[in-house]
Amino acid sequence: MFTKIKNTVLNAVKQINDSYEFKPLLSEIEEAPVSPLGRFTFWIIVSLIIVTALWLFLGKVDIVVNARGIVIPDGESKIIQPLETGVVKQILVKEGDFVKKGQLLIKIDASTTDAQLKSVTKNLAQSRLEVKRLMANGTETNFSTEDSLPELDEEKEIQEKLYKENLTSLNNEIAAKNNQIKQLNMQISSTSALKRDYEFQLKNARERENKLSEVLDIIAYSQYQEAKDKTNSLQESVNKTGAEIKRLQAQIKEVQNEISKLKADFKVQNLTTLSETQKRINELEAGKEQIEFSSRNQMITAPCDGYIDKLKIHTIGGVVTPAQELIALTPAETPLIIKAKVLNHDIGFIKTGMPVSIKIDTYDFQKYGILHGTVKSISQNSIEDEKLGPVYEIYVLPQENTFIIDGKEQKISTGMTLNAEVEIGERRIIEFFIYPLIKYLDEGISVR
Which residues contact 188 (CB under 8 A, 6 or more apart)? Predict the structure, then answer.
C-alpha cells in the first residue's frame, strides 16, 4: 500500500503544470490543480486509521493478576529446641545462613551441668573403689588402688584403711577363737592324761579288789571294802574326766562354728554392701549418661544441611527453657515454592496450572530476566492482611530457581520477596477502550 502511495505522489509531481502561475490571482487559484501533497496526506491518515483499527480488533494482550509473594520451603522447617533450661552463652549464626549438619549454632552455658558431671563422676569413682575393696574382702585378695584417679587419693586412703581395718577385725576375732580352741585342746590334753592315770589306777584297784575278794575269809572285811571303795572312786574319776573331755570337745566344736559364722557373716555383709554399692553405681552411671546427654544437647547443633529460616532468640545471657523454639531450619534438599497473596476481587479468575511470571525483587528483571512457574494450589479461605485486607494465598511452583549473575548461577533462597504475575487469559486491545464506555454508560442509565 505504501509503495502505491509513493508511486502516485511521484507521478503527480512529474505532471505538475506551472503555466497558471503567471495568470491573474483569481484565475491562478481557479485553474491551479489540486496539490498532490493533500491527497498523499489523506491516504496516509486513512492508512493509519485502517492499521490502527485492525490492531485494535485483532491485537491481543495478556491479562495478568499481580500478587506480592515470598520464597518459602515446600515442606515443614525443622524446629530446633533445647532439652534443658539454660543461659545463652553464644549465638553463632544469623537468619539466612547456610549451615552444615552438626555445625554448632548456639552455645548454652554448661557450668551447672559441668559441676553435676564432676560430682557424679567423683561419686562413681568412689563407689567403684568401694566395690574393689568389698570384692577383695570377699575373696581375701590384695586390694590395689594403683589404677585409680589421682584426685581420689584421699578416698583411696579411706578405702585402704577400711580394707585393713575390716580384715584386721575379722582376723583378730578368728585369732581369739583359735586361741580359745587352743586352750580347750590343752585342757583336753591334760584331762586326757588325767583320765589315763585314773584308768591305770582303776585297773590296779580292780585287780587288788579281785584278789582280796578271793581271800575274803582270811582278811578283814574292812580291808576289802576299802579296796572296793577305792575302785568305785577311781571309776567315778574316770567317768568325770571322760565327760569333761566330751564337754571340752563340744566347746571346741561350738567355737569352730562361731569362727565359720564370723566368716559367713563377714561375707554376707560384704555381699550385701557390694550389692547396694553396685546398685548405686548403676544409678550413678545412668545419672552420668543423662547429664552427659544434657551437656551435649546444650551445644545446639544443626540436625542437617540447610538454611537458617528463623532465629527466635537474639539475647546473649537470655534464659531458654525446654521445648522453647530457638531456630527454624530449612533443609537444603527441600524444594522451594512461592507463596503469594491475591486480592479478594482477583482470586476468582485464578485456576491451578495457570502460568506465572516471577520477578524477584533482589534481581532486576530488566537486567537478569524473570522466572517461570505455574499455580500449584489455591487456599480455600481468605486471611486478613493488615495492609491489603482480605486476601487469598496461592502457591506457585517455579520451573527454575537460578539466575545467571556475572556468568555464575545464583540460586534463589528462602525469604526473597517477589512479584508474581499470574496470566489468567487474553483480551483484545479494543476492549480496553470500549469496556470503560460501556461501564459508564450502563451506570449512567441505571442511576436515578
Answer: 245, 248, 249, 252
Helix (H, G, I), strand (E, B) or coil at 387: coil
8 Å CB contact between 359 and 332: no
C-alpha cell at 42: 489523506
For residue 103, give every residue at least 6 positions away whose Cβ sits within 8 Å of its Cβ, in sequence order, or none: 301, 302
Residue 182 corresponds to which cell in the numbers above?
587352743
> Model's pTM, two decimal places?
0.45
Please give the grid coordinates belonging to residue 325.
523454639
What is the distance between the alpha carbons of residues 408 and 425, in angstroms, rounded to a whole number? 35
- CA–CA gap between residue 146 and residue 159 (Å, rounded): 13
Q: What are the C-alpha distances in Å from 427 to residues 67, 369, 372, 430?
A: 20, 25, 21, 8
* Distance from C-alpha of 202 to C-alpha of 223, rounded to nearest angstrom: 17
| Assigned C-alpha cell, 252 | 571346741
| Cα distance between residue 197 and residue 234, in whole Å | 10
Closest CA to 105 of 75, 78, 70, 85: 78
Q: What pLDDT sits at residue 157?
A: 66
Evaluated on CA atoms 57, 61, 62, 66, the torsion sign reads negative
Alpha carbon distance 8, 146 (integer Å):
123
Q: What integer pLDDT is reported at residue 106 of this predicted model? A: 87
Measured CA distances, 415 to 310, 337, 399, 424 (Å): 10, 11, 18, 26
Calculate the alpha carbon distances from 223 to 41, 208, 210, 226, 322 in Å.
Answer: 195, 11, 12, 5, 112
Amino acid 13: pLDDT: 46
Mean pLDDT, 10 residues at a time, over the chain (448 residues)? 52 49 54 64 85 75 85 80 82 86 83 71 75 64 52 62 73 88 91 89 85 78 83 89 90 91 82 80 81 72 84 86 84 85 90 93 90 93 89 93 86 87 78 65 54
Q: Which amino acid is at 379?
A: S
Residue 352 is placed in which grid cell? 491451578
As beta bridge partners, residue 299 has 107
- SS3 (DSSP) at 215: coil
Alpha carbon separation from 233 to 199, 230, 247, 262 (Å, rounded)? 11, 5, 21, 43
Do 300 and 82 meet the contact criterion of CB atoms below 8 Å apart?
Answer: yes
Give pLDDT, residue 358: 94
